[in-house]
């Protein structure tokens, strides 16, 4: 059995209007920098964090969504998005930004980090974790 604990960061909040989304991303980057086995889950309004072409000009805050594309550099390669949360908000996988990582075990092939999963699959993913942090 591995000594490395599996951490799942659950994102349920919209990207702007509260500090939760940005704080989650910062904690994920810190944890990954210290070699934690990190993955993220996006449920409820958290799915909006991954939408493409975010424009924050009207609210006067920095758009931090491009930072998600750097997660692969920190070996964060599993971003689980709940399909039902997308459906309930009128979104599809095509509305999400493209987040890729290079798979060193597959000759550095670029692969998508976002995985659309059902609510039931998300429950199973959560059950496999050692630590779950919810934002």
CATH superfamily: DsrEFH-like
Portion in beta strands:
15-25%
Number of strand elements: 7
Highest-level CATH class: Alpha Beta
Largest sheet: 5 strands, parallel
- Structural class assignment: alpha/beta
**What number is the mean pLDDT?**
94
| Principal-axis shape | globular
CATH level-3 fold name: Hypothetical Protein Ychn, Chain: A
Structure description:
There is one protein chain. This protein has 135 residues and is α/β, with parallel strands linked by helices. The protein has one domain (6-134): DsrEFH-like (Hypothetical Protein Ychn, Chain: A). It is built from three helices and seven strands. The protein has helices at 20-33, 83-88, 119-127, and strands at 6-11, 37-42, 79-82, 100-103, 109-112, 114-117, 131-134. The strands form two sheets. The protein has a five-stranded parallel sheet with strand order 6-3-2-1-7. A two-stranded antiparallel sheet has the order 4-5. Strand 1 (6-11), helix 1 (20-33) and strand 2 (37-42) form a beta-alpha-beta unit. The radius of gyration is 14 Å and the shape is globular. The mean pLDDT is 94.
Chart the SSEs and their pairings.
Blueprint: E1 6-11, H1 20-33, E2 37-42, E3 79-82, H2 83-88, E4 100-103, E5 109-112, E6 114-117, H3 119-127, E7 131-134
Parallel strand pairs: 1-2, 1-7, 2-3, 3-6
Antiparallel strand pairs: 4-5
